[in-house]
What does this fold into?
Amino acid sequence: MSNNPDNGADPAGATPDRKATLGNALRRRILTMQVAPGSVLDEVALSEEFGLSRPPVRELMRQMAGEGYIELEANRPARVTALSYQSLRAYFLFAPMVYVAAAKLAAENGTPGDLEELKRTQKRFRAAINDLDVEGRVFFNDQFHQQIGEMAHNAYLLPSLRRCLIDHARIGKIFYQHPNNKQMQDDLETAANQHDAIIDALERRDAVEAGDITLAHIDLSRRNMAMYATPEGLDMPFQI
It folds into this structure.
């Protein structure tokens, strides 16, 4: 997987489908906040950049709106989904239930192949930490948690998890790019170690431990994001 979010490539390298290439690139740009929350998306510019006509770009916008990346309103241009105090509060109230359920189901239903792919993603995440690759940290952390959701093999859980991960990635971006003191750096290493512990619990099919570690992992994220990821422009204290 290239660490360049603008290349539009999927994790395997590339796709001949221009619409899929645009979708992959735009999702990554939103997750890594190259395109800021609330930003207008220029259909014409995207059409030209990816060699597409307007109809498939509009179709993709509708699809991504259903996924939670984009907001569509009648007679207005598409915008990246906003990130507000209210949405962050809703995220922190709801996300722990989804993440813990995903971990428990992954421990019960995951396959050896699923686990090997999760280990590969964790190696990429650690490499991004070591290489000071902020966008890689955000992207591979997102992939790690999404793969756990896929390991759960539960069609009802995955849409909710994917929606949570959009905001998880965006509010995590600010923390990942500012480990500017020892506590923050230690917390980043703790988060990576928790990933390893989750993998270990999944490998042993210990659903209870996988859920407990995941809950501690989300609590670490909540504390750090509450301290460092208050959206720009909010002058109210960020409290859950």
Remarks:
- The longest strand covers residues 70-71.
- Strands lie at 70-71, 79-80.
- Residues 85-109 form the longest helix (25 residues).
